[in-house]
Specification:
Chain lengths: 317, 317
């Protein structure tokens, strides 16, 4: 981030017509945006949302309440404007791009072999990296992929250890949850040799849309575009970067705490306090998209308010 | 609320292209909006924000970090578009109206006599009632009034009993906080005879902008316009209605939990779970205005999404 812009934005914040600190966390958010955008008056009126969709071999293990063909059906729904994320993108003035990643060719079942080859994971990382519009004011990476809460749980377990990372996802019953936990355990056992290498973890246990999200978060960093992280799956993708390079997510804020059981635990590992906590568990970037409104509000206040001097208002004492 | 619209909206919610419940609290919010607006597809794109400003005799007790003339200066700032609420109104497409209520004639110091006469309190209640645009999709009542966290604390103490309702407001030190607590105690002692009558409590311990907010919340109820409650002061105004008539706030949602110490306690009394918790303590309706974005997102999803049948997506099982 740009230290000069942070200093200028901090000074500006102190002069705005409000009691010091009265906008709470909104003030820090605006200054953080200023640092990444390199200006004392950041903007948030042109956000970009990118959804990556992928299919997963591990669905053969009965880990989802929905059939795998829903991934491609939902991609069609995105194209026709019928999904939740379409409505949220419109509500907050965001550009929405959708990348379907080889949906007819699911990744390999990670309980049996690596989910992706090295060439495959590099290709989707690059696809994600290049999906970021460097002129966007804010970036949200969303996902669609039946079975991907199991994949995200495997990544979290591999990166941070421990058990209990699997959750209800789109709504599995107790037996489904047990199958998810078994698949995660089997995946970790199968790929035990690579668990200390975050990029190998991503290749062996991840998925195309998750690797693409990681690439996009990295691409946003290079372009100095602030990122709003979505739920459990987006945070698992982000965690690969953070474990590989601590500080890699300094340009990211947590959009929300989702209802997926282990998301709070993952946010704690990432050191991120969520902006919203409304029990969403949809994916598609929906929780992060809803949080665009919070950042738009924060930036609107910071960049648009009058100073005490401009308004002729007496400062407190 | 309209039971037919609620039933229709609930049925619609169950058919939208998402796993059941995946939009969390957003689903209940959209259905609640449907009930008050009397349609299965509610809207939130035309919100109204009204700010009421008043001055308070109790400022003579040294209860604020800011001089009383800041009230009128901030009203000028609202008129010129320089305040936080102007930026938030613009960001969320809200109409903003400002009513300055006899600023050159503060209410009486409630530690010595009733803050308002019966005629005065009726006049400002009516002013608030009539300030609501019945065609608005959502309503936010905000306030500006140096000294009014002390007034709100006195109302809360009178309505609910107990001590510790006074807080830091715009930023008083320990001595200022002690003066606020003393003023509240003196006010309650002075008006002990009327504490069981919420409207007399409003007259004796309230203020013009607070009574106007109460009138506006009532006006919105009559017009079936859903309301987003702001912070401690707005909730104290709302509490007068709730204590007078339990259920009077069924058309209201709590926009946020503010940093003012006793706001959480007041929300618990009102049985309201806040949508946001970002440490705001500015007033002006700012926290509620920020929450407009959440309701716009909820309503956009509910009213704009495709159903499973429309989109040709397989439902879960």
């Amino acid at each position: 981030p740009d230290a000069t812009a942070i200093a200028a934005a901090t000074a500006r914040n102190g002069q705005l017509t409000k009691p010091p600190g009265a906008l709470g966390r909104m003030e820090a958010l605006a200054i953080w945006m200023a640092g990444w955008q390199g200006t004392d008056k950041p903007r948030a009126d042109q956000p970009q949302i990118v959804i990556f969709a992928g299919n997963h071999g591990v669905t053969a293990r009965g880990v989802s309440a929905f059939p795998a063909e829903v991934t491609v059906q939902m991609v069609a729904n995105f194209a026709h404007g019928g999904a939740a994320i379409n409505q949220l993108a419109k509500a907050f003035g965001a550009k929405l791009d959708v990348h379907a990643l080889d949906l007819d060719r699911p990744t390999a079942d990670f309980t049996e072999q690596p989910a992706m080859s090295e060439a495959e994971v590099v290709a989707v990382l690059r696809k994600g990296f290049e999906a970021v519009d460097p002129t966007a004011h804010l970036f949200v990476a969303g996902e669609m992929g039946i079975g991907n809460t199991t994949v995200a749980a495997a990544l979290a377990a591999a990166l941070y250890g421990g058990t209990g990372w699997a959750g209800r996802g789109t709504g599995v019953d107790d037996a489904g949850l047990a199958r998810k936990e078994a698949a995660v355990a089997a995946g970790l056992a199968r790929h035990a040799a690579v668990l200390s290498d975050p990029l190998q973890v991503l290749r062996c246990l991840g998925g195309r849309e998750i690797a693409a999200m990681a690439g996009a978060i990295l691409g946003a960093r290079m372009a100095r575009v602030p990122v709003i992280l979505d739920g459990f799956i987006a945070c698992a993708a982000a965690a690969v970067l953070e474990v590989a390079t601590p500080g890699a997510l300094d340009h990211c804020v947590a959009g929300h705490l989702s209802a997926e059981g282990a998301h709070g635990r993952l946010l704690e590992r990432l050191g991120k306090e969520p902006l919203l906590s409304l029990g969403l568990r949809l994916g598609e970037g929906s929780g992060a998209a809803l949080a665009i409104g919070v950042l738009q509000g924060a930036v609107a206040c910071h960049s648009g308010m009058a100073t005490f001097a401009e308004a002729g208002v007496a400062a407190g004492g």
